[in-house]
Amino acid sequence: MIIARDIHKHFGGFRAVDGASIEIEEGSITGLIGPNGAGKSTLFNVIAGVLPPTSGSVTMAGEDITGLPPHALFHKGLLRTFQIAHEFSSMTVRENLMMVPGGQSGEGLWNAWFRRGAVAAQERALAQKADEVLAFLTIDHLAEEKAGNLSGGQKKLLELGRTMMVDARVVFLDEVGAGVNRTLLNTIGDAILRLNKERGYTFCLIEHDMDFIARLCDPVIVMAEGKVLAQGSATEIMQNEAVIEAYLGTGLKNKMKAAAQ
């Protein structure tokens, strides 16, 4: 579905991404892991149109989308969330979701004045859809809560909910588990799996929690120093000597050896 080929992104003399190529198959949950500074988020930003590549190409379902801005990719069904949630803190959780779809009738002055009935009907439909999304994510009890009052994990669920307010095809999740307690992380994982299996979402996610990665992702892609170091199942990756050396550390290696004895 998404093919990023020979992506380079340089900042002056620094090569944040240095010839990385990845492929995200339709219907998959692909994990992207690696040490800090490996270029994972930069690669995300290039694919999602936040940053233009220095060189290389990105295609989606065979269409060249290299360098398209985020709003254009949004309308094609490619969405990206960030490590730090970006909510409208003074608005309610429901209102945050209702803001997502573009081209709403109430955005036009003419409609706001002379087509109030149509505007109100659309708002009711959006509110109903938002409530369905919140129920799916099991946070419907927070519908009237100000988004700024949510915990870190609840904000991550809200960001995931935003993708459900439009016809998302592929969603890039950047460290969805950062700062999230284990209970909420399991809830987020459940929601990702359900969206993948029941609604056909394709996911690619950056995450450092290997248990979370192993539960959700196949394949797992490892980056280091701006390049792709390895790719395979979570089990294969955790047994890969180069990956252990570059990222996972000898502690995991010793743990796995002890478990095998």
TrEMBL record:
It holds the Pfam family BCA_ABC_TP_C. One of its GO terms (molecular function) is ATP hydrolysis activity. PROSITE patterns: ABC_TRANSPORTER_1, ABC_TRANSPORTER_2. Keywords: ATP-binding, Nucleotide-binding, Transport. Residues 2-250 form the ABC transporter domain. One of its GO terms (cellular component) is plasma membrane. This is Branched-chain amino acid transport system ATP-binding protein. PANTHER family: CONSERVED COMPONENT OF ABC TRANSPORTER FOR NATURAL AMINO ACIDS, CONSERVED COMPONENT OF ABC TRANSPORTER FOR NATURAL AMINO ACIDS-RELATED. The keyword Transport applies. It comes from the Bacteria. SUPFAM superfamilies: P-loop containing nucleoside triphosphate hydrolases.
